[in-house]
Amino acid sequence: MPLSFTVGGATLNEADLVAHMVGAVKNIFSTMVFIDDLADSYPLDKPVSHFTCSISGMVGLGGDCSGMVGLHIPEELAREVTASMLGMGLDELEDEGDVNDAIGEITNMLAGEIKMIFSGRGMNVCLSTPSVIAGKEYSVEVVSSGAAVVVPFERGEQRFLTTLQLEGC
């Protein structure tokens, strides 16, 4: 069943959120990461909560609407994104700290774009500091009875996910 709820007196549906997320991700990657060849492949064919050799950035939403914004990206693509964002070659990345910082910052930018949806409807929404999880194998599960929007993106053979969990809007 498609997501639909009232935000600031206006109905916001899943298609609106997906369109905003797609536009935000493509804009962030184009202007900040200098990558223009992303394709969105919404809807996601099956739920994903288990990641292998990946990095996940997460930013919490609080205030009039609570939830979580996430970016889940394979390590190899995360390294390419970081190198491009920093104007460096892959061989110039010295440690995983730069990669974690870049993924956290991209997630923060995406959360800021999503926050604008709610702020534009008169809601007060605050963002948490980004958190980053990386590993060879891990699971991310948001304990929530709220709604979720997951938008997959592809760059060549690589795929990453952006997520929005909402509770109490």
From TrEMBL:
SUPFAM superfamilies, sorted: CheC-like (SSF103039)
UniProt cross-references to Gene3D superfamilies, sorted A to Z: CheC-like
Highest taxon in the source lineage: Bacteria
Cross-referenced Pfam families: CheX
Annotated ranges, domain Chemotaxis phosphatase CheX-like: 55-154
Keywords: Chemotaxis
Database matches in InterPro entries: CheC-like_sf, CheX-like, CheX-like_dom
PANTHER family per record: CHEY-P PHOSPHATASE CHEX (PTHR39452:SF1)
Protein name: Chemotaxis protein CheX
